[in-house]
Specification:
about 230 residues, alpha+beta, Fumarylacetoacetate hydrolase, domain 2, nine-stranded mixed sheet, five-stranded mixed sheet, 5 helices, DUF2848 domain-containing protein
Length: about 230
């Protein structure tokens, strides 16, 4: 279990949440035809195709982090621009929305996507909206990521490019898991071709252009020492 603390955007309050269960969505684009094309591209790189889309991967809850540093075992790891929903309590207004970055082991991904999701942390922002405060603006929130010290843009899209937070909350309800302490990370948007994802710094921003308010994740990636043996 991990305790996360969120400063609530637009309200003078802070919310603590003990993460009991954590899920990563995958292949979660709203245009599932484009998702199938992406699956074919990944299959050519050796990444096994999912048995169904969208997919949902249980992740160890201790991997939910709010940190500025991610330790990586090798050079083939990278983040993904995502949003996260965190259920902080029993009321509808207790569902929080924040920026998130799923740091994934790409070398392990070719052996199993679920394994790769458990090999790195899900880094969540320290600022979050109460989802009810966003209303129908949520789809229009801009989701971007930059890599490296030079802040090279690698992803740029909208929450509406992905399956909605409400649709995933419905999935949790159907599974009997819409409960306090459950967090779900959204899956990601396409990366810009030609940008090296294997960077030593990742930044993800979720921007409400109507108000200028943002939730951000920023962290450095540090290589661990070489193993002995």
């Amino acid at each position: 279990m991990t305790r996360l603390t969120f400063d609530i955007i637009g309200r003078d309050e802070t919310v603590d949440v003990d993460i009991q269960r954590l899920y990563n969505a995958g292949y979660a684009g709203r245009d599932q035809e484009q998702v199938r094309l992406h699956i074919d591209e990944l299959a050519a790189l050796g990444v096994p195709a999912p048995s169904t889309t969208p997919s949902l991967y249980p992740v160890s809850p201790y991997l939910a982090r709010q940190t500025g540093l991610v330790d990586a075992q090798h050079a083939q790891t990278s983040g993904e621009a995502e949003w996260g929903v965190v259920i902080a309590g029993p009321r509808p207004e207790d569902v929080l929305l924040t920026a998130a970055c799923d740091h994934t082991d790409r070398a392990l991904e070719v052996h199993g996507v679920a394994w790769s999701k458990n090999a790195g942390p899900d880094v969540l922002g320290r600022r979050a909206w109460r989802l009810v405060d966003l209303g129908d603006r949520v789809d229009r929130l801009r989701l971007r990521a930059w890599v490296g010290a030079g802040r090279v843009l690698i992803q740029d899209g909208r929450v509406g490019d992905l399956l909605s937070p409400s649709s995933w909350l419905d999935v949790l309800r159907e599974r009997g898991e819409h409960e306090p302490g459950v967090a779900l990370i959204s899956g990601t948007i396409p990366m810009i071709e030609g940008v090296d994802q294997f960077a030593d710094r990742w930044e993800v921003e979720l921007l409400d252009e109507a108000t200028g308010e943002t939730s951000r994740v920023v962290y450095d990636v540090a290589r661990m020492p070489e193993p002995i043996g």
